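Quick start: what a row looks like.
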Amino acid sequence: MTRQRRATLPDGFNVRPATMADIDAAVEITNRRSVHDIGEGDMTMARMRMFWTEPERDIATDNWIVASPDGRPVAYADYSEYAPFVENGFDYAVLPDYCGRGLEQAIFDVVEQRARKTVVKAPLGE
C-alpha cells in the first residue's frame, strides 16, 4: 500500500482526541453544518451522547476535535468499527466558515490512520 503525503493544518490549528467535555461543541458544529447544507439541524445532545458512548467506541481513539488557533473547536470527526470489521464508518463536520482550509483532508488522514488499525481485524479475504 502506498503512503500518501499527510495533510498539514493551517498554522495554529490542531487535531486532538475529543473528550466528553467536547460534546456540546460537536453538537453545535454538526447542527451549524447541517443548517448550512440542508437548511436544518437535528442533532441533539442525547443522540450525540448515544453515539459517543457506544460500547464499541473508545472516545480517546475514535473521536477528534480540530481546534482553531484560539482553541475553539471548529470541526469534529468520529470513527465507528463493528465486528466483523469489514464495514466501518466515520462522520465529520466542519463549521462552514472553516471549509476549504485543509481541515477536511487532515481529518481524513487521522481517520485513515485509525481505520488501518481496524482493517487487520477483518476476516482474511474480506
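That is the whole record. Residues 103-119 form the longest helix (17 residues). The longest strand covers residues 73-80.
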